[in-house]
Amino acid sequence: MMARFLRCGGSLASFIHTHSLAMDVVTIPALSDNYMYLLIDKGSKVGIKKCAAIDPVNPSSILEKVKSLGLELTMALTTHHHQDHAGGNEELARLWSATYEIPKEKFPIYGGDRRVQACNKMVTHDSTIEIGDGLLVKCLFTPCHTSGHICYHVTEIGGDARNAVFTGDTLFLGGCGRFFEGNASQMYNALVKTLGRLPPSTSVYCGHEYTLKNLQFALTIEPNNEAIRCRLEEVIKKCNKGQATVPGNLFEEMETNPFMRVDRQEVLEHCCTTDPIKAMEILREKKDRF
């Protein structure tokens, strides 16, 4: 893995590049604490490697990176309609059109909500998308933060076992998104029943750099959880060095993220309930005040 640096909780700088046999992911910071991504198919059999942009809120940065890496941008995948994720879609289509001399309407912009800016490819739960010859994207419907939120689970076609999930504002490293258009039951389904059933090795690419504060909160919920304490120490070291905290993985989340641990006795006891959905509601209320 090649890493460049950012400041946790401050402005982001440069990018992170992670790779495997058929899949590359380039993380590009945007705004104050957002992440955009380039998902690259290294398995293209002929020609230039294909890539997709995920939540490309800063289109010029996306296209600069596409050009510098010698890639062909073929689509945009949008997790949800909020301006800090979908607000660059129309401009990206316009710049893409000028670059490739193809009408901007031909640029595929995927999303699960008609409020997604410039969306022309609607997806639902279990919809699939192929990127180049080597990557298969499965759409996961995870409503709560917004009613049309989609996470994108990526696997390699006929390649190694690496897989990744792009979670937008549903799952953060160590935390989850606010329940703007949903409720605790929906977030429980999204985190535990949908994302929680992906392979534990799944790399997690979230929409914001919130990891430090999330883990500080997690430790107040489970002060005796050594995994949280160790992970927090690692994150603090990264922050002190100006390093990024993404990607994480689902195994870490299931060990340290209280919102993915609402079935665990320690979390239930802290929330004074036996109902994991009620625990989810209580945790969100506590985190909103943290």
From TrEMBL:
- Transmembrane segment boundaries: none
Q: Which CDD domains match?
A: hydroxyacylglutathione_hydrolase_MBL-fold (cd07723)
Instruction: Provide the cofactor list for this protein.
Output: Zn(2+)
* Keywords annotated in UniProt: Hydrolase, Metal-binding, Zinc
Q: Which InterPro entries match?
A: Clx_II_MBL, HAGH_C, Hydroxyacylglutathione_Hdrlase, Metallo-B-lactamas, RibonucZ/Hydroxyglut_hydro
GO biological process, alphabetically ordered = methylglyoxal catabolic process to D-lactate via S-lactoyl-glutathione
Q: Name one Pfam family in it.
A: HAGH_C
Catalysed reaction equations from the record: an S-(2-hydroxyacyl)glutathione + H2O = a 2-hydroxy carboxylate + glutathione + H(+)
* Segments forming domain Metallo-beta-lactamase: 33-208
Broad class of enzyme this protein falls into: hydrolase
Molecular function (Gene Ontology), one example: metal ion binding
Q: What is its EC number?
A: 3.1.2.6
PANTHER family in the cross-refs: BETA LACTAMASE DOMAIN, TENZING NORGAY, ISOFORM C
Q: Which family does it belong to?
A: Belongs to the metallo-beta-lactamase superfamily. Glyoxalase II family.
What is the protein's name according to its record? hydroxyacylglutathione hydrolase
Q: Source organism lineage?
A: Eukaryota, Metazoa, Spiralia, Lophotrochozoa, Platyhelminthes
